Amino acid sequence: MTETTGSTGTQALVDRHRLADVPLASPSAHQGLLEVFRRRYVLRLLVKREVQGRYEGSFLGFLWSYINPLSQFFIYWFFMGKILGASHGFENYPVHMFAGLIIVHFFTETFGAGTRSLVGNKGLIAKMSVPREMFPVATMLVSLWHVAPQILILIGVGIMEGWQPDMVGMMCAVVAVLIAMILGTALALLFSTANVFFRDFGSFVGIINNYVRFAVPMLYPFSLVRDNLPTWVTHLYLCDPVAIACLLFQRAFWVGTTADPTRSAAETLPDHLGLWTLGNLIAAVLILVVAQRVFQKFENKVPERL
């Protein structure tokens, strides 16, 4: 056990030295998200460093990737499903809720950790000549890495409930993760820059993430929104990319567990889901483009403010 811990510590020290030994150059020569992925070696080191840092000194280690989402699942299921009665008359409510929870957790982790990424890595920013977008991107990839065990849990529960996967559903799952990935990275770029100048933005992001959990059809079905709110409010609701991503993930993993998937999709999913998906995907990409431009405008001021 001691030998294993020592080797892990040695490897982490070697990785830090590799990061520190990246040759210095003008930061302006390495701007842009494309340059981030051209430097995949450094990006892998940052992701590995972040993952190891999360579990350093932990007895359970990677098992926390399963424990944390499962604990959230049971809390929401018990209080919302059982005590408040959200699951009454709703088929396979736990699967519906957990499908939305995975997307929400991925987005909020990307957004929150990405916002803190520049401040949290100020030592590396001062030493390394890499595109500074790399730090929010690395936190997004770490969050994406933790999505895998959550999906495995969801698939296992779905299979026990008679899940019937289909090609359209799998495409919906991929697009859902893509939307959350793009939007989370875009907002992380914007707010990480703002957080360098005003630390209040880190706390503000926490408030936004608390709102997100109730502003998407995770704890309740979309049909409640459609049936109880005016049409224009429903359309405004569907302009939220995270809400669409939740609906897509539920289409992929929840609809197939119901007794009549066609009827479940018609009753709990919005009309023209494909068009709403396309519109929100385009919107997420445009937000990412704007976020990249804003980040580039202020990134040269980041080191002096840190």
TrEMBL record:
Keyword Cell membrane (UniProt): yes
GO BP, one annotated term: lipopolysaccharide transport
GO molecular function: ABC-type transporter activity
Cell compartments where the protein resides: Cell inner membrane
Pfam families linked to this entry: ABC2_membrane (PF01061)
Keywords on record: Cell membrane, Membrane, Transmembrane, Transmembrane helix, Transport
Entry GO terms, CC: plasma membrane
Coiled coil: none
Domain ABC-2 type transporter transmembrane, residue spans: 43-245
Membrane topology term: Multi-pass membrane protein
Protein name: ABC-2 type transport system permease protein
